[in-house]
Specification:
The protein is of the alpha+beta class. The chain is built from seven helices and nine strands; from the N terminus they run αββαββββαααβαβαβ. α3 (about 135-145) packs parallel to α5 (about 170-180). The N and C termini lie far apart (about 120 Å). Pathway: Isoprenoid biosynthesis; isopentenyl diphosphate biosynthesis via DXP pathway; isopentenyl diphosphate from 1-deoxy-D-xylulose 5-phosphate: step 4/6. Its main location: plastid.
Length: about 250
C-alpha cells in the first residue's frame, strides 16, 4: 500500500521533471536562435518598493544611431583631436560704423605740446610714453572703436620701449590701414579739444589740414572745435588737456 503510492509519486515526479527539462531546452534553443538573428536590448531595470520595474529606454534607437554615426565617420576624412576649431561665421558687414574716442594727458613743464601733429608753442606739454598727441590718440581710438577693435593702449602698449617718444602719426597710419583693410573710409569726423591754455584758434586750420592729410580724407569732412574748461578741475587749471572724437566710417 504505502510503498506503492510512494513509488507512483516518484515516477510521476520524474516524468514531470523530464517534461519540464525538455520544454526548457526547447525554449532555450529558440531564444538562442532569436538572439543570434536579431539582438534584443532589454530596458534598464531598477528595484523599487514593489519589486523590479523597467525604465523606458532608447537603447535600440541609440544602437541604430551609433551604427549610422560609425558608418559616417568611416566615410569622412580623419580629424585630429588637437586640431584648432575655426568659426566659419562671416563677419557682419555694415554700410556704416560709428566710433567714439577720448584721451587725456597731464601737462608738465619741459615737454613739447603737440596737437594733431602740430607743435604748439606753450610753457608745458603732455607727459606721455609717446609724443603725447592727445588729438591723434583720440582719433585713433575712435577709428578702432568703429571697427570693433581693441583700443590704442592694447595695440601700442605704453610699456613697450618701441613706442617710447614715437610720433603719433605712426598710430594714425596703422588705424587708417586697418580701416582700409576692412573696406571702410572716413564719412566724417568731429573732434573737440578741451584745454584752458593756449588758445587753439590761431592753429586750428593747420591742425585740421594735417589731420585730414594723415587720414587721407577731404578737409571738408574733418571738423575741429576747441573749448576751455572754465577754470574747473585739472583741465581748467592748465594741468591737463583732453579730447573727444566721433567718427563715421562708410563702406567703400
Amino acid at each position: 500500500g504505502g510503498e506503492d503510492r510512494r513509488g507512483e509519486r516518484n515516477l510521476i515526479t520524474e516524468e514531470m521533471a523530464m517534461a519540464t527539462s525538455t520544454q526548457l531546452s526547447s525554449s532555450s534553443s529558440l531564444f538562442h536562435s532569436q538572439i543570434t538573428k536579431t539582438p534584443f536590448l532589454l530596458p534598464a531595470a531598477k528595484i523599487g518598493r514593489h519589486g523590479f520595474s523597467f525604465r523606458s529606454s532608447n537603447s535600440l534607437s541609440l544602437s541604430r544611431r551609433s551604427s549610422s554615426v560609425s558608418a559616417l565617420a568611416a566615410s569622412s576624412p580623419a580629424v585630429g583631436v588637437n586640431e584648432p576649431v575655426t568659426s566659419e561665421k562671416p563677419t557682419k558687414t555694415l554700410p556704416f560704423r560709428v566710433g567714439h574716442g577720448f584721451d587725456l594727458h597731464r601737462l608738465e613743464p619741459g615737454y613739447p605740446l603737440i596737437i594733431g601733429g602740430i607743435d604748439i608753442p606753450h610753457d608745458r606739454g603732455c607727459e606721455a610714453h609717446s609724443d603725447g598727441d592727445v588729438l591723434l590718440h583720440c582719433v585713433v581710438d575712435a577709428i578702432l572703436g568703429a571697427l570693433g577693435l581693441p583700443d590704442i593702449g592694447q595695440i601700442f602698449p605704453d610699456n613697450d620701449p618701441k613706442w617710447k617718444g614715437a610720433p603719433s602719426s605712426v598710430f594714425i597710419k596703422e588705424a587708417v590701414r586697418l580701416m582700409d583693410e576692412a573696406g571702410y573710409e572716413i564719412g566724417n569726423l568731429d573732434a573737440t579739444l578741451i584745454l584752458q591754455r593756449p588758445k587753439i584758434s590761431p592753429h586750428k586750420e593747420n591742425i585740421r589740414s594735417n589731420l585730414s592729410q594723415l587720414l587721407g580724407a577731404d578737409p571738408s569732412v574733418v571738423n575741429l572745435k576747441a573749448k576751455t574748461h572754465e577754470k574747473v578741475d585739472s583741465l581748467g587749471e592748465n594741468r591737463s588737456i583732453a579730447a573727444h572724437t566721433v567718427v563715421l566710417l562708410m563702406k567703400k
